[in-house]
Amino acid sequence: MTYTPTEMMTVAAARALKNEDVCFVGIGLPSAACNLARLTHAPRIKLIYESGTLGTKPEVLPLSIGDGELCETALTTVSVPEIFRYWLQGGRISVGFLGGAQVDRFANLNSTVIGPYAKPKVRLPGSGGATEIATGCGQIFIIMRQGARSFVKQLDFLTSLGHGRTGRERRDLGFKTKGPALLVSDLCILRPDPETSEMMVTSLHPGISREQVVEATGWPMRFAEEVTETVPPGKDELEVLRDLLARTAKAHGSAEGHE
Amino acid sequence: MTYTPTEMMTVAAARALKNEDVCFVGIGLPSAACNLARLTHAPRIKLIYESGTLGTKPEVLPLSIGDGELCETALTTVSVPEIFRYWLQGGRISVGFLGGAQVDRFANLNSTVIGPYAKPKVRLPGSGGATEIATGCGQIFIIMRQGARSFVKQLDFLTSLGHGRTGRERRDLGFKTKGPALLVSDLCILRPDPETSEMMVTSLHPGISREQVVEATGWPMRFAEEVTETVPPGKDELEVLRDLLARTAKAHGSAEGHE
Amino acid sequence: MEFLTLQNAISEYVKDGDQVALEGFTHLIPFAAGHEIIRQGRRDLTLIRMTPDLIYDQMIGMGLARRLIFSWGGNPGVGSLHRFRDAVERGWPQPLEIVEHSHAAMANAYDAGAAGLPCAFFRGYRGSDLPSVNPDIRFVHCPFSGEELTCIPSLRPDVTIIHAQKADRAGNVLIEGIIGVQKEAVLAARRAVVTVEEIVDDFGPRSSNAVILPEWTLSAVVLAPNGAHPSYAHGYYSRDNAFYIAWDDIAREREKFQEWMRENVLR
Amino acid sequence: MEFLTLQNAISEYVKDGDQVALEGFTHLIPFAAGHEIIRQGRRDLTLIRMTPDLIYDQMIGMGLARRLIFSWGGNPGVGSLHRFRDAVERGWPQPLEIVEHSHAAMANAYDAGAAGLPCAFFRGYRGSDLPSVNPDIRFVHCPFSGEELTCIPSLRPDVTIIHAQKADRAGNVLIEGIIGVQKEAVLAARRAVVTVEEIVDDFGPRSSNAVILPEWTLSAVVLAPNGAHPSYAHGYYSRDNAFYIAWDDIAREREKFQEWMRENVLR
Fold first, then answer.
1. What is the arithmetic mean of pLDDT over C73-100?
2. CA-to-CA distance for D138 and D120, rounded, in angstroms?
3. Chain A residue with the nearest C-alpha to that of C73
4. pTM score, two decimals?
5. SS3 sequence, chain A?
6. For C150-202, what is each residue's pLDDT tens digit?
7. Interchain contact, C116 vs B77, CB within 8 Å
8. Touching B: which chains, 3+ CB pairs < 8 A?
């Protein structure tokens, strides 16, 4: 069964989630991955959106972080200060999903500006919940399309701490949380080197060469000793994902729904 | 119509409350006074109990600060942290009612211990909400039975700040709230001297002599230049109060209900 | 609390130069009130919102704002807020000073404002570049554990405006669904205006812990049915996601934006 | 979360020497759980409660407590807690170390614990003698306004036990009415046990903002009908005010108290 790179990326991210996880979900690809996991191998996963919805089970993916669907299908809905104070800062979240316009080799993220902050070439939306999600969740999964402009040697701005600019800052600041443990792109899967915390390719998606990955990376990409091939999306995974996206597109009156 | 000293005290306190007031109500006499005001001249007064009930209209007086009656007749009920953070500390309360085992000439209150703190002769319940009610409400009304053991020269412990041990501490600490503006006893009504903040008798209840008040006070009691006689409880005030206490006693299966 | 028309509420309670917070976290965004502010041509406003959203994109594009305090400036699920970007990137129609925070920081700052505190203490920003561009972000130590904590000034808007489902005849306001930071934003503000979908005699049977703002915490209550569109009102109408998608094209070019505002807001 | 009998929940989750919080602000006080702790003879407990109430009067009188963290130690509307007084005034049945706070302080300390912070910042205690007898009360300055604020350690009990109206089959817990500090006390604790009036298939139609503790925040849920008596459960039974009044006489004398406990709790 044929599939798109985005589908491969979404499925690979979904597979990393477990029934026991309590997930802080962002809109877009993370929302697709988390709900795909919930609708396939992890029916008991708990999804939390920063709009305050606890244990939500949306039928269609939200366009916004606060769509009514999230509240109507939630166990309950609390205030936004409570979500950030009792639930995120309180250490109740096991996995936080993040993305951004730029990521560096130590999985630090930029979602603030391209160019200088005072005079940006592109003003991006900014942190939202990301800055504290990055440090408050048990571990962080990053899901991003890979390219030389997004996988950069040097971030224009560090919005959300990964492992730090040298890979040591997170440890030095004394965080008990793991930080970025997984980065899934449309080309491959990366995990941090246990020693240096530099993200290394541990799995290539089917049909993707090391050269393609190197070309799509703004720093000299490292590969793990053993690089496996990502298991392609299964028929059931694709069917559930496509149904979900079709329902979503129909609901939002757009071709892409959550994109 | 004859009446008891307690009834005089309760009625006098009730009269000081206005429709516009938002009251932080304690159990016992304050609760009786606030609800008497609500059932007579101040039907629009807002009553808040520290158990989290906003705008409550109890049919019978609560025995405890958290009786179900308070919640069932409230506009809504919030958490206890919210009551103290958003409502009291947030500056939303115009009048706080307090009492205690001991009061001094500057209307500081002791509800903690009789005797030394480390080895108390009598261990009293303690602050409860009082310490922050004393400083957080727009003004404080105190309602207490008067006697040489309760109106003392020197507090064994200062639980709740009135105007301070010398009458200047409240001002020096920079509080914007007024502090004790009224003290109603079973003998008289006291208000602070605008200069020294010492509580002075401004009104004697009918039939009470200056000598009786002096005898029932542990410090040389001062009298205002003009001391009036408290208007005795009216027929309607007494009927409403007695009905309320009768309903209450019946509901709690005790002779005294709220006492 | 007084019941007012939208026009009178805005003219009485929103002044030039005010710090204004129109809150509503995706849900219950007070668009009708924002449009009235635009029609009345307020100037030099400091706009406060966690997510500026389309309503601030419109107010910024119409030149009402001198300053923006925010934490996420995008079109949710769609992309950029083009008017916000044009103001920050090219100073059109006028330069926009930004005070940038994270969601956690804004939520804590509203909470601290509602609690009457001068500042909020939380665990945030560590390892991020944001403190280097926002001097309002300081760090203090817990006197017991020694842990470094983050401290920012509380938010105390001159006026907060929110939209809610219902008011009763007394002017008490009931909010349901995604409640966001509305209660905190109202309690943190000097003045508060609430637009509502409907005014009912009585809220009737309800949870004893329903989210209700007592009338004595509000300056004015305004009947404004559909007042949150294209945002939504839980139990009344759903989010107009198609419009949020369409806004991307409407707001991309200055002229098209201005024409749309003339046609749909100003007249 | 696991569904357990009361006996198994207490033996598994309450250990000698633990910091234990049985919360419930007048409403929903977990008496049944407290009685089971007494039957199992736990020792050296640090008891945490804003209002010790009759349940801690009983636990203190039975010699379970080494230390008490509290803010109001009376019998509401009745008078003294005689067992508490006997322990503090005469060290019977054993000396009781007290850590004394105000309600505002305790509420803020639970809130800070739930928020994962090491300490709570609020405006309190100024002008009172309490800071002179409680070294845990410190003062810090707001870095922006310079205002002096109060700082106390957050409460992080080893185990919190509360009583609630309902659990569903998954173990989620619904609380209604006077909710007190129960949610904060549970989220601040390392372990949490909830006793409930009933277990239902599904909570059914409810406010979208109902106060619910997800099962994954709890260690154990226990079916314990009438488990709050003589306190009450909103919607199930009301407060036994007559018993609270009668307790004054039962607890006044050591022998009468011990006999009552033997007759009504131990057997």
1. 97
2. 10
3. A125
4. 0.97
5. CCCCHHHHHHHHHHHCCCCCCEEEECCCHHHHHHHHHHHCCCCCCEEEECCCEECCCCCCCCCCCCCHHHHHCCCEECCHHHHHHHHHCCCCCCEEEECCCEECCCCCEECCEECCCCCCCEECCCCCCHHHHHHHCCEEEEECCCCCCCECCCCCCCCECCCCCCCCHHHHCCCCCCCEEEEECCCEEEEECCCCCCEEEEEECCCCCHHHHHHCCCCCCEEEEEEEECCCCCHHHHHHHHHHHHHHHHHHCCCCCCC
6. 999 999 999 999 999 999 999 999 999 999 999 999 999 999 999 999 999 99
7. no
8. C, D
Closest residue of D to A52, CA-based?
A: D209
Whether residue B115 contacts residue B145, with contact meaning beta carbons closer than 8 Å, is answered with: no
User: Which residues of chain D have a CB within 8 Å of the CB of B66?
Assistant: 25-27, 76, 178, 180
Alpha-carbon distance of A36 to A42, in angstroms, equals: 9
Burial class (CB in 10 A: 0-12, 13-18, 19+), D89: middle
Cβ distance of C208 and B76 shorter than 8 Å = yes
Neighboring chain A residues of C181 at a CB cutoff of 8 Å: 79-81
Nearest 10 degrees: CA dihedral of C8, C9, C15, C16? -70
Read off the pLDDT of residues A11-40 as tens digits, 9 standing for 90 and up.
999 999 999 999 999 888 899 999 999 999
- B71 and C208: CB-CB below 8 Å? yes
What is the rounded CA–CA span in Å between residue C267 and residue D57?
70
Q: What is the pLDDT of residue A65?
A: 84
Inter-chain touch D117–A77, beta carbons under 8 Å: no
| Contact criterion met (CB < 8 Å) for D100 and B51 | no
CA neighbor of A51 nearest in space, from C78, C120, C103, C188: C103
pLDDT per residue over A107-153, tens digit each? 999 999 999 999 999 999 999 999 999 999 999 999 999 999 999 99
Q: Residue C246 contacts by C-beta under 8 Å, 6 or more apart in sequence? A: none
Which of C187, C210, C216 lies nearest to residue B86, judging by beta carbons? Answer: C187
Interface probe with C: pick from D28, D111, D119, most Cβ of C within 10 Å: D119
B123 vs D89: CB contact, 8 Å cut-off?
yes
Contacting D with CB below 8 Å, chain A residues are: 22, 46, 54-55, 71-72, 74-78, 85-86, 89-92
Distance from CA of C202 to the nearest CA of B (A): 11
What is the tens place of the pLDDT at every residue in A49-104? 999 999 999 999 998 888 888 999 999 999 999 999 999 999 999 999 999 999 99
* Shortest distance, CA A235 to any CA of chain C (angstroms): 27
Alpha-helical (H) ranges within D29-102 are 31-39, 53-61, 82-90
What average pLDDT is seen over chain B? 95
Rg (CA), chain D: 18
Confidence at residue A254, expressed as pLDDT on a 0 to 100 scale: 58
Q: What percent of chain B has pLDDT over 70?
A: 98
Q: What are phi and psi of D6, to 5 degrees?
A: -60, -45
How does pLDDT run across C23-56, given as a tens digit for each residue? Answer: 999 999 999 999 999 999 999 999 999 999 999 9
* Whether residue D228 has pLDDT greater than 90: yes
Instruction: Report the residue of C110, C128, C142, C155 to disrupt the A interface, i.e. the one with the largest count of A CBs within 10 Å.
Output: C128
Peptide bond preceding C230 in cis form (omega within 30 of 0): yes
Catalytic annotation, residues of B: 50
> Is pLDDT at A256 greater than 60 in this prediction?
no
> What is the pLDDT, as a whole number, of residue C49?
98
A near B: at least 3 beta-carbon pairs less than 8 Å apart: no
Using alpha carbons, select from A191, A172, A27, A178 the residue that is nearest to residue A91.
A178
Q: Which of C115, C138, C147 sits opposite D118 (nearest CB)?
A: C147
How confident is the model over D188-204, as a mean pLDDT? 97
